[in-house]
Every structure is written in structure tokens, then in C-alpha cells.
Design goal:
With about 650 residues, the chain is α+β, with helices and mostly antiparallel strands. Helix content is about 55%, strand content about 15%.
């Protein structure tokens, strides 16, 4: 047995462990080679990725510069002389402001002096004379009626919107001071309709003066005029922007909640325009430090982040200077690149991370999106696949090893059980054969001596018969099990009275039970109907249960045999008061060759076939076998055989 076990261990090592170890060693070697290759591949991929990032960043920079230069050419075409006015705004939403470079530095449109008197014609001189007379009557004489008359005469001599506005505004003021509020409001409302390009010498539109005066009495009209300027692309001068803020602040103090809410919304939009104006003033102050050239665009870190560019020398008498919104440019460029399925990007301002946009955008860098890495093959994918394959191979190897070990262990266990079976059968056969031989020799000696007692002779013969029956039962068990294993066991079913079968089993076991001092208590129900059964097989099952009870009763000498009716079945029960069976072993005791491993069982002879045959016989008759047991409290084995259905008195069926 030990040689077989050693042989199995040796085969297990040769077939599974050694090849697995070889695979692992080869895998470790391959993995080290793969790591070296991966290191080289990663370095190559890193270089390729860095080169690809530089190329993509250069392409993005070229797209941005192309967009900026297109804007520059558009603005040069719009202002060929290099002049700009406060009323002029770019048609491109990316352009924040357009100015020009003068001797003193950067000049924005609102820095241009405003003049509305034009020439010295008779009508203009008459307009000026009447307006000045009105100013003397208003300010020096404080005669508002006389002043109003002069302003009306000046208004009649006005030839341009600016002249009409410069006469209407003081006229409305003196009318309000004179108490003519309705007429003053009418004049102010007329001024609201003037375009924003009609301004005074300070660059303030006359409409803003009127809106400030009407912010309380006619808030809705004044607010509509403010929104008209905020929605327009026309540039706001600093003075004009702050004037509109004063108008809105006045409206935010209104007693009308709706006016306050609308004014707050307009103030939020105006704040962005004021931020642009303040950034423009900062650019103007630091323009020399920016070192703007015609070949590059310099960043300015204002609130909206601008790029500042300049037209080349000779493109205009005074080179144009453009402030362009970075976000607008980036949005348009990214939209164009997405249409070409190019990787996304984001502008970075730390000056360290990302890739440079090129010499035309100094200091500007971009961070490319993660999809750029898809263009470069990721190293290590082959090694990962190889590692997964190795894992699967090793796993399958060990799974196969487990099943081989389990089957080998099962075969070894079966071989051990067969060996125990042969030993047990030999022991079981030896006992009755020894008894038969002993009593047969005793009879022979009595015959030779002629002194035998007839009573003793009868006892000897009965013992020989009982032991022969015992030997027959043991051989039948072995033969029946052999037929069952080959699938050749047949049962001959015929109508039989079950109480008679039980009585026959009791008669067969009477002598062995009495010989060992057992008290068999029998309780048989006689009103059971006839059953179709194999008489010899059922009797053999009962005898096996009684033999089992005798073996495992321990010191107890009481055995019960009961035949009863339960739930439509005939129930044969054999009970003992012996050593009992643990709950965990009760399902296995009906397996072939199985015996509960315990010290008590090791001292009791047996083949492990009796209960397996009982289970097979019960199943062949459509019944079941069950056990109820507890260690130290004995066991009760029950064979349940189905009873035929009997006709009920009312014509139905009953059991």
C-alpha cells in the first residue's frame, strides 16, 4: 500500500509539479526579458509622444496665429488710414478694442478730442451766439424763462444732431428748474433717441445725460436706452461706462422692485464692459513694457486674457494696435480642429507645463488632451497578455492537479475499502465455518464412541443449520452486491403477505439472538393488505437490519422489531439501544463499503455492504429507508414500502 502511495506521489510530481515549475522558471526568464524590452519601448514611446506633442502644439500655434492675422488684416482694411473713432467697433466678436500707436504710446478711440462746432458759417455763429446768451441768462441772471427762449432760438439754428443735442440738453435743464417738468421730460425723452455717437466734448453721449435725469420718473425708458448701448458692439469710453453705472445705481435705489431687478441684471452686463475698459487702460499704461511687434502677439493677463498685436510698419500711417480676446480665439480654433478630429487642448499660463505655441506667441503654452496618447502604442500590452496567458496555464494546471489528486485519492480509498472488505468477508466466513466444523466433529466423535446424548445431538445439528444459514446470508450479500454492481440484480415481485415475511425473518434470527442473550420484542400489525414484493429480498433486508442491531447494541440486549402502517406505507422498523450514529455520518452509512470511523466500530467485524443492500432493496420496491439515531442512545432503521390503494366504501379510493 505504501509503495502504491509513493508511486502516486512520484507520478504527481513528474506529471504536474515538475512541468509547472519549468513553466514558472521559463516565465520568470521571459518576464525579465520583457521588462528590458518594455523599458526600451517606454523610452521610445516617451520620445515619440514628446515629439508628437511638440508637433501638435506647433500646429495649434499656427492655427491661432492664422486666425489672429486674419483679424489683423480685416481691421487694416476697415481703417486704411490708421484712424479709429469711438463710434466704430469691430465686426469680429473676438476683438475687444482697436487703437493705434502714437508718439506718446498707445491711443484708444476715446482719447481723440471731440469737436462739434465744425466751421465758422453764419448759421453756426448764430447758433453759438444764441446758446451762449442762454447760458448767461441761466447762470448769471438765473432767469430760466429768458434762458429757455435763447435755447429754443439756438435749437432753431442747429444744423446737426450734435448742435441740436447741445441746445436741447440745457433747454430741458432750465425747464425743469422753472417747474415745467412735463415739457422738460418731453425734451429729455427726445434726447434718449439720439445714437451713442452723438457725444459732448468729454465723450459722453447726450442720451446718457437724459437717462440719468429720467432714471426715476421714466425708469423703464431710461433702462431700455442703457440696454441698447450694452447690447451694441460699439466701444464704450471710460467716462461713458461710468456714466451708465451711475444711471443703473440710481435705478437700483428705486422703490419699484421690478425696476431694481432689471437694473441689477443690466449692472452685471455693464460690469463686464467696465472690466474691458479698465483692462484697456492698463494695457495703455504698460504698452511700452509689452514690446508689441508686428511679428508676434503678446499676452496680457487681464480679466478676459487678451493677446495684443500690431499691424506691420507701412500698413497704415499710424500702426493699428489690436486687443483680441483669447477665449474667443481658442474657441474658434478648437471648433475647427474638432471638425478635423484633432486632439483637444487647453491654454496654460504657468509658463512651465504644456508645450510651447511657437515664436509668434511667446510665453504661451498649451496642454494637450489625453487622446494624444492613443496615437502612440502603449508598451507593456504584450507582457500583460503573456502574464494573463501564464496565469491561465498555471491555473488550469493546478485545477487539473486537484482533480487528479482527488481521483487518485478516491481510487486509493476504494482500494483500501476493498482490502478491508476482503479481510472482513474472510473473517465473517471463518466464524460460521469454524462453528460448523466444530459441531460436525463433535457429532462424528459421538457416533464413533456411541455415547452421544440425543438432546445434545439435536442442539449440535440446530447450530450447524443456523450457522449454515448465517453463512448463506453472508454469501448472498456478497453475490447480490456483485450483481448490483454489474447491473444484473433482478427482483421477482409477486403478491405476498408482509407479516409472514417478517415472521420468517424472526424465526431465522431466533437462535443467533438467543445464543447471544438478546431479547427481541416483535410488534406486527396483521391488517395490512398484500404487497407485490420479492419475499427473499425483503427478508434479507430485515435480517441485515437485525444483524446490524446485534453488532452495534453494545452492552444492551434489547432489540425491537415492529411492522405498522403510516401515511399510506407499510413501515418495518428495527430499533436498538446501542452505540448510535453521529448526525454527520447518517447520510453516508448507506454507501457501499462505508463504516463509521470510530474505536467501537473498529473492534466490530463487518463488510460495509448490509445497509447499502437494504437501501437498494427498498428503492427497488418503490420505498425508502431512513435512520434516526444519536450517539449513546441507539438507532432506529425504518423501511417504508408503499401500500396499494384500496377502494373506498363510497366508490372512491382509499389506502
Amino acid at each position: 500500500m505504501n509503495r502504491l502511495r509513493y508511486r502516486q506521489v512520484f507520478l504527481f510530481l513528474v506529471v504536474l509539479v515538475l512541468p509547472t515549475a519549468a513553466i514558472i522558471i521559463q516565465s520568470r526568464y521571459n518576464a525579465s526579458r520583457e521588462r528590458e524590452n518594455d523599458a526600451q519601448a517606454r523610452e521610445l514611446a516617451r520620445r515619440e509622444l514628446a515629439d508628437l506633442r511638440r508637433r501638435r502644439a506647433t500646429e495649434i500655434g499656427q492655427d491661432i496665429v492664422t486666425r489672429l492675422e486674419r483679424i489683423k488684416l480685416q481691421e487694416i482694411a476697415r481703417a486704411p488710414s490708421g484712424a479709429a473713432t469711438a463710434a466704430t467697433a469691430s465686426s469680429d466678436s473676438a476683438v475687444a478694442f482697436v487703437g493705434w500707436e502714437g508718439r506718446e504710446g498707445l491711443i484708444w478711440p476715446w482719447n481723440v478730442a471731440h469737436s462739434h462746432n465744425g466751421g465758422a458759417s453764419r448759421e453756426e455763429s448764430e447758433f453759438t451766439r444764441k446758446r451762449q446768451a442762454g447760458e448767461r441768462a441761466e447762470l448769471a441772471e438765473q432767469n430760466y424763462s429768458r434762458a429757455a427762449a435763447f435755447y429754443r432760438e439756438a435749437l432753431g439754428n442747429a444744423r446737426t444732431d450734435a448742435e441740436r443735442a447741445s441746445a436741447s440738453l440745457p433747454l430741458a435743464n432750465v425747464l425743469a428748474r422753472a417747474g415745467a417738468q412735463a415739457e422738460a421730460a418731453r425734451v429729455y425723452r427726445g434726447l434718449l433717441k439720439l445714437p451713442s455717437s452723438v457725444t459732448d466734448d468729454q465723450g459722453l453721449s447726450f442720451a446718457s445725460y437724459a437717462a440719468l435725469r429720467l432714471s426715476e420718473s421714466h425708469a423703464a425708458e431710461a433702462l431700455a436706452r442703457v440696454n441698447l448701448d450694452l447690447e451694441s458692439a460699439a466701444l464704450l469710453s471710460p467716462a461713458q461706462a461710468y456714466r451708465w453705472r451711475s444711471v443703473l445705481e440710481s435705478m437700483e435705489r428705486s422703490g419699484d422692485a421690478a425696476v431694481r431687478l432689471a437694473a441689477a441684471g443690466a449692472s452685471a452686463r455693464l460690469a463686464k464692459r467696465i472690466a474691458d475698459v479698465e483692462d484697456a487702460l492698463q494695457v495703455q499704461q504698460h504698452f511700452r513694457d509689452l514690446r508689441v511687434t508686428a511679428d508676434s502677439w503678446q499676452p496680457y493677463a487681464g480679466r478676459d486674457r487678451w493677446w495684443i498685436g500690431k499691424a506691420p510698419t507701412g500698413a497704415a500711417s499710424r500702426p493699428l494696435v489690436l486687443a483680441v480676446r483669447v477665449e474667443e480665439i481658442l474657441r474658434s480654433v478648437e471648433t475647427e480642429r474638432q471638425a478635423r478630429h484633432e486632439p483637444s487642448f487647453q491654454l496654460v499660463t504657468d509658463g512651465v507645463s504644456g508645450e510651447s505655441l511657437g515664436e509668434h506667441l511667446p510665453g504661451m503654452r498649451v496642454a494637450l488632451g489625453p487622446e494624444i496618447t492613443k496615437a502612440v502604442a502603449a508598451p507593456g500590452a504584450g507582457r500583460s497578455f503573456y502574464g494573463l496567458s501564464l496565469f491561465l496555464v498555471v491555473t488550469l494546471t493546478f485545477v487539473g492537479a486537484f482533480f487528479l489528486w482527488r481521483d487518485t485519492r478516491r481510487e486509493s480509498r476504494l482500494a483500501e475499502l476493498r482490502s478491508q472488505f476482503v479481510s472482513s468477508v474472510s473473517h465473517e466466513l471463518k466464524t460460521p465455518l469454524t462453528s460448523i466444523r466444530m459441531f460436525a466433529e463433535s457429532l462424528q466423535m459421538d457416533d464413533e464412541s456411541g455415547t452421544g446424548d440425543p438432546k445434545e445431538r439435536a442442539e449440535y445439528l440446530e447450530t450447524i443449520v443456523c450457522e449454515s444459514e448465517r453463512l448463506t446470508r453472508l454469501l448472498n450479500n456478497v453475490l447480490d452486491f456483485s450483481r448490483i454492481e454489474r447491473g444484473q440484480k433482478n427482483y421477482h415481485l409477486q403478491s405476498e403477505e408482509l407479516p409472514g415475511v417478517v415472521d420468517a425473518a424472526v424465526r431465522t434470527m431466533r437462535f443467533p439472538l438467543a445464543e447471544q442473550g438478546f431479547d427481541l420484542r416483535v410488534d406486527i400489525c396483521d391488517d395490512l393488505p398484500s404487497l407485490r414484493l420479492d419475499r427473499d429480498a425483503i427478508e434479507q433486508a430485515i435480517l441485515n437490519l437485525l444483524n446490524n442491531a446485534m453488532k452495534y447494541s453494545g452492552k444492551s440486549r434489547e432489540i425491537g422489531l415492529r411492522l405498522s402502517r403510516r401515511n399510506g406505507s407499510a413501515l418495518i422498523q428495527v430499533a436498538d439501544q446501542g452505540i448510535g450514529i453521529p448526525a454527520g455520518e447518517q447520510r453516508r452509512i448507506f454507501d457501499k463499503f462505508y463504516r463509521v470511523p470510530s474505536k467501537e466500530n473498529n473492534a466490530i467485524s463487518g463488510t460495509g455492504l448490509g445497509l447499502a443492500l437494504v437501501a437498494h432493496i427498498a428503492d427497488a420496491h418503490g420505498g425508502t429507508v431512513e435512520v434516526e439515531s444519536a450517539p449513546g442512545k441507539g438507532s432506529t432503521f425504518s423501511i417504508a414500502l408503499p401500500l396499494p390503494r384500496e377502494p373506498a366504501p363510497d366508490g372512491g379510493a382509499a389506502v
